Amino acid sequence: MTIVSRAVQFVKGLLTPPSRPVCPRCGGTLWNRHGFSNRGKRCLDDLDPDVAIQRYRCTRCGKTWSDKPAWLAPRKWYGRDVIRMSLDLAMDCTTSWRELGSMVHGIVTGAGRAVRWAPWRQPKEGSEPIKLAHTTVWRWFQEAGKRAGQEDRVAERYQGLFSGVLATDESWGWIKGIVEGVGRKVGFGVQALVDGKTRLVLNLRRLANETEEELRAGVEQLVRRGIGLKSIRAWRSDGRQTDPAIWAMRDLGAVPWQRSIFHLWRNLAGGLKAYAAAKGQQAGDRLRDQIRAVWDAPSERAAVVALMTLVQEYGDDPLAGRLVRVVRSTFKEATFHLKGMVAGLARTSGVVEWVWRRYKRRLRLLQCFMSDDGADNFFRLDELHINFHRYQIRKERKRVYPYPGKCPLEIAAAEIEVEVDGRRVAATWMDALAI
Ligand SMILES: [Zn+2]
């Protein structure tokens, strides 16, 4: 089942509860009322410790069960909305576990931090016994992360949603941890496999080490996620030395490779600076423009012509010659999109830079994962969060979002909205996990 069908099914269930109770074991519709269980309601809109939940008993099979209103989170003291808000804030708004805990506590109780917001208001009635600790919020997060890693939720997750262009990148993170009894910073690698067209994150994971085998394992996991390796038609990366070896291991050596222009420019930055320092800014700008004419060419023909001009003019120059050689040796990968072999494949700058930007911002304030598998849980949830997260609709022109108001899953042509009573509601990553 894809994460989309999972999420849509769940949110539909929340929005349209069955009109009449049905036995969860045999599907029978004949039952007797079977008393109440005192559940209490600790939700964002309502704080009532005495809310009772109706129980039923099936007359056919004897199974007993309780009502499950949308607000009720099974086996949790707090309501579903409190937990969902906490997870949403944890993923999307950067703050520490402690600050997050105190904020959620304030919203639920109207006490504590909420007195800062509205000193003229009394805390909500019944707020006294509510002591929401940051560890509770953290635990909800870990439980969600474990759920995201469950075999049945991972299997076939992205079936039918892959465009054929795979972008890969690795990054490095630092986190506060304990090493041999001493508190210090601990480093770890992260691998991201992203759909190069739709930006759908196909696998985001912590690397156990930096060997080729470990990187390859991430690619192989795609199969379990519903993406056949044979369906990879182009490969994007920033040009790590190990990449070709990984592809060859999986018989993917023939898959065309596209390089990120952003990284190619970065490779030339030092050389261009040295050239401009020696020959003057104007000459430096001219060389830059000539290189840009190759990498930004509108057609393959224009790119070849621009490359020939570049080689002719600068090929023998002792300073610029080295740069020209880089442009020449990477020409095929830098201009692969112009061949038109993969429909809709565009020139690429950052491969998955934006994933790293988000995650680093988040990590900086989070500071610690508070457990060994905390990092794994974080990346599992981040993957789902990114895929369901819609891009902003912005009025100002500072930044251009190519798909305003859409999330990667929607760009990959999945329908995440549910229509109930004329209202359209978008499913979220939390619905995909049935939280
Ligand atoms: Zn029954």
What is this structure, in a nutshell?
With 435 residues, the chain is α+β, with helices and mostly antiparallel strands. It is built from 17 helices and twelve strands.
N-end to C-end Cα span: 17 Å
The total beta strand count reads 12
Based on the structure given, which CATH architecture of the domain at 165-260 and 349-366 is correct?
A: 2-Layer Sandwich
Rg: 27 Å
Shape: elongated
- H and E order: HEEEEEHHHHHEEEHEHEHHHHHHHHEEH
Bound compounds, each kind once, are: zinc ion
Strand order of the largest sheet: 8-7-6-9-10
**How helical, in percent, are the residues?**
40-55%
Task: Describe the oligomeric state of these chains in a short phrase.
Answer: single chain
Low-confidence stretches: none
Class derived from helix and strand content? alpha+beta
The number of helical elements comes to 17
CATH top level label of the domain at 165-260 and 349-366: Alpha Beta
Biggest sheet layout: 5 strands, mixed
The proportion of strand residues reads 15-25%
At the fold tier of CATH, the topology name of the domain at 165-260 and 349-366 is Nucleotidyltransferase, domain 5
In round numbers, the mean pLDDT is 88
Report on this structure.
The protein is an alpha+beta fold. Among the domains are: 18-66; 165-260 and 349-366, Nucleotidyltransferase, domain 5, CATH 3.30.420; 261-339, no CATH class. It has helices spanning 3-15, 80-92, 97-109, 114-117, 134-148, 151-154, 212-224, 243-249, 261-279, 281-295, 300-314, 320-329, 331-334, 353-366, 374-388, 408-411, 429-432; strands at residues 31-38, 41-42, 47-48, 52-58, 64-66, 165-179, 182-195, 201-207, 234-237, 257-259, 417-420, 423-426. The protein has a five-stranded mixed sheet. It has a three-stranded antiparallel sheet with strand order 1-4-5, with no helix packed on it. The chain has a two-stranded antiparallel ribbon with strand order 2-3. Helix 10 (281-295) packs antiparallel against helix 11 (300-314) and helix 11 packs antiparallel against helix 12. The model has no long low-confidence stretch (mean pLDDT 88). The structure holds zinc ion. The site of zinc ion has 8 residues, from loops.
